[in-house]
């Protein structure tokens, strides 16, 4: 079976490839806005579904389409990818010395009997940063690495490796895909 991965993230492609599937990345532009008032788990599921609907045209009978969205949440405030270095700095100062949540919403879709069958789920992981210095934050921002990551950091980056001192839940969820849960869901999904 093939996995059609509607994501530009090389991290997601590496993670899903580790399950032993043939992975083909498909490029899709989907609206990532959601109605106000949704809980974080509903936000990531809604965006994953929007991406799935936008990428549906790539589906073939021998493939499963996988879409996902990851957000960082602190104090009920969603932190997406920083728009610039100043926003990344603000995010990392906010997360310093505190717990936060990382949610990844996933949508799986396949062709079945002339229609598209979907299943959606979300995974939560709690992450704690040790207290960070302004110099550590500025040094990380100068690498440019925070700019394509929710919350302004990558747990797998050298910065994340030395700055995150506790985690509750799936590490790979923080990287961008809850791989163990996806493997389980793919087997239930009939793949």
Can you put this structure into words, describing what you see?
The chain has 191 residues and is of the alpha/beta class. The chain has a single domain (2-188), classed as Maf protein (Alpha-Beta Complex). The protein has helices at residues 10-17, 40-55, 85-95, 134-142, 158-163, 171-175, 179-188, and strands at 2-5, 22-25, 63-74, 77-79, 99-112, 115-129, 164-168. The protein is elongated, with a radius of gyration of 17 Å. The relative contact order is 0.18. The model has no long low-confidence stretch (mean pLDDT 92).
List its salient traits.
191 residues, alpha/beta, Maf protein, seven-stranded mixed sheet, 7 helices, 30% strand, elongated
Spell out the blueprint of helices and strands.
Elements: E1 2-5, H1 10-17, E2 22-25, H2 40-55, E3 63-74, E4 77-79, H3 85-95, E5 99-112, E6 115-129, H4 134-142, H5 158-163, E7 164-168, H6 171-175, H7 179-188
Parallel strand pairs: 1-2, 1-3
Antiparallel strand pairs: 3-4, 3-5, 5-6, 6-7
Biggest pleated sheet: 7 strands, mixed
DSSP strand tally: 7
Q: Could you tell me the mean pLDDT?
A: 92
Helix count from the secondary structure assignment: 7
Structural class computed from helices and strand pairing: alpha/beta
Give a short summary of the structure.
The protein is α/β, with parallel strands linked by helices and 191 residues long. Helix content is 34%, strand content 30%.
